[in-house]
Design a protein that fits this description.
This protein is an alpha/beta fold. It folds into two domains: about 120 residues, Rossmann fold (3-Layer(aba) Sandwich), CATH 3.40.50.2300; about 230 residues, 3-Layer(aba) Sandwich (Rossmann fold). Helix content is about 40%, strand content about 20%. The strands form two sheets. It has an eight-stranded mixed β-sheet, with helices on both faces. Strand 3, helix 4 and strand 4 form a beta-alpha-beta unit. Helix 6 packs across helix 15 and helix 11 runs parallel beside helix 12.
Length: about 350
């Protein structure tokens, strides 16, 4: 996580910035109150400064744009906030200070990833009428793709225009499950059923994600994104590699991030690892949790109790459990189809259909 130096005179603004970043696990090593103290610290600690993110305010006594510009070679990066209206003309390119911690984290993370293109405006979610749900996996073989595919199908059956996006870079599966080819054109999508379209984000299209999602949210009522594993989430949110682009967008811009986990012992262990990261990571998307492959009887009751104990502290907006149903899943896989197409009356299909109705209500 980045090392941070703050240089903001206003005590409330500085406390908000430093406290918010510190709560994320970022190391705030120095808090300057004027230009002289900042300059002295950077002169005395060049090794620390060279790897630090400098966050300054335009209210810093003794500072101006020319002086701040001289620091660019001494720090890793810098980002400025407009704290005071007085002397605002002295600084160019400073950002309005967010009032909400998640907006501040989103802006600073984005600046760390791409300092030349991020602006304060990008912390605001683009107005839209569509709903975006990202589905991530707490571990491996959780059924994340199965749920994403079938949830998208159930939404389309409810006469909602729906786009399903393959964004599991580590193990893309939707095309294989449906026995399809050539869905990787990130500039558009393919209709695969009434009210349902499919697209994929890959390395060649990841740099156009923002414009693609803007088009998609204008076109569809619901967008379901399969993002695969969410392990190491906090590091990925400041990662500049293309494989983190969709996860970062979803944490900042999606309406809901649904975490899917297996009900068995290993699945629960992986879930607790993800929860530990989420407790230290602010994201703007609402969290929900789905326990998949729950056993029947007392064993299933114990799995559900353990699941609720782990997830309740995060105050998710939705917690669900899906029972294990191997026969229905295998039949759908064999026919390269969704559950409603192969076994409309299966309990698993009914549970996902109920989830779809809940989402649109």
């Amino acid at each position: 996580m980045p090392t941070v130096i703050t240089a903001i005179a206003n005590s409330e603004a500085e406390s908000f910035v430093a406290g918010t970043l510190y709560a994320q696990g970022w190391n705030v090593v120095f808090r300057a109150i004027d230009w002289a103290s900042l300059h002295t610290y950077l002169e005395s600690n060049p090794a620390i400064a060279s790897n630090a993110l400098l966050i300054f305010g335009n209210d810093l006594p003794g500072a101006n744009k020319q002086l701040v510009d001289t620091l660019q070679s001494r720090v890793r990066q810098s980002i400025g906030f407009a704290i005071s209206d007085l002397g605002a003309d002295e600084f160019v390119g400073v950002h309005p200070l967010p009032t909400v911690g998640t907006d501040l984290i989103s802006l600073v993370r984005g600046f760390v990833r791409a300092p030349l293109v991020r602006t304060g405006a990008m912390t605001q979610r683009r107005p839209r009428s569509s709903k975006v749900i990202a589905i991530g996996s707490a571990g491996s073989h959780t059924g994340c793709t199965l749920i994403a595919l079938n949830l998208a199908m159930e939404l389309s059956l409810l006469a909602k225009s729906t786009l399903l996006i393959e964004a599991n870079f580590r193990a893309p599966s939707i095309a294989a499950v449906l026995s399809m080819r050539n869905i990787a054109d990130g500039s558009t999508w393919k209709s695969i059923a009434p009210n349902l379209a499919l697209s994929e984000v890959n390395q060649s299209s990841a740099d156009q994600l923002e414009s693609f999602m803007n088009k998609a949210t204008d076109e569809f009522e619901f967008i379901i994104i399969d993002i695969g594993s969410v392990s190491g989430l906090s590091n990925r949110l400041t990662d500049r590699r293309w494989t983190s682009v969709v996860t970062t967008w979803c944490c900042d811009q999606a309406d809901e991030l649904m975490i899917v986990s297996r009900a068995d012992h290993l699945g629960h262990y992986r879930l607790t690892q993800v929860i530990e990261l989420l407790q230290q990571t602010s994201i703007r998307a609402q969290l929900s949790f789905t326990q998949n492959m729950k056993s029947s009887g007392k064993r299933g009751d114990a799995q559900m109790a353990r699941f609720l104990t782990a997830t309740t502290p995060l105050k998710p907006n939705r917690v669900r459990s899906l029972k294990e149903e191997i026969r229905s899943v295998m039949a759908a896989e064999d026919e390269h189809a969704t559950l409603v197409e192969t076994n409309e009356r299966s309990n698993l299909r009914k549970s996902i259909a109920e989830l779809a109705r809940e989402i649109i209500s």
